[in-house]
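FW: tagging you since you asked about this chain on Friday. Here's the raw sequence from the shared folder, copied in full. Didn't touch anything.
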Amino acid sequence: MTSIEGAPEAAQKGHGAPDHGRDRAEDAALIARVADRSIDAMAELYDLYGDPALRAARRVCGDDLAPDVVQDVFLQLWERPAAYDPARGPLQAFLVMRTRGRAIDVLRSGSSRRAREQGDAALRAPTASSQGLGEGVGTDTWDLLRQLPADQRHAIALAYFGGYSYREVAVLLRQPIGTIKGRIRSGLAQLRLLMTNEDL
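HL: got it, structure written out here
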């Protein structure tokens, strides 16, 4: 992966304390320092917002790819600091939104083997919201989930393991909500059939 020239090794060591009492003027001043190619400013940016961005990435793509996604987002900001407009909201919200978008782009990409594995990573890390699939979900079930078509698997991963509503999944995948519901419904039906066949 491309690094931020001259600085990222130092900058990326901080994974950040949460934002406490910062306002948009402070964010704007920090971005102005980034625009001036300040290594210290980039390190401060990671210290402040690295953790929230990483958590957002993990929700979508799992632990394996999340650091790369976050690195991409911060690299983009290093290269184009003017992309952040303080008038439109806090810097943390901007970075989290960008991180989710980048994670979804990677998840949707069919050209990269790592991107395809990203959806599987979400299936390997079920959360409490996965209870919609029923109690007692085990390793065999995750193996079966990975047999589903990619469009169904990705929709299910976001809805049941990423914690997103159907409407949010539709927005993230840029599909009508009816299409998303259909994919999830078909995927779950196919999953039940696979589970039945496994029991025979």
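FW: Residues 8-108 form a domain with the Rna Polymerase Sigma Factor; Chain: A fold (CATH 1.10.1740).
HL: agreed, and The CA atoms of residues 17 and 32 lie 21 Å apart.
FW: great, closing this out.
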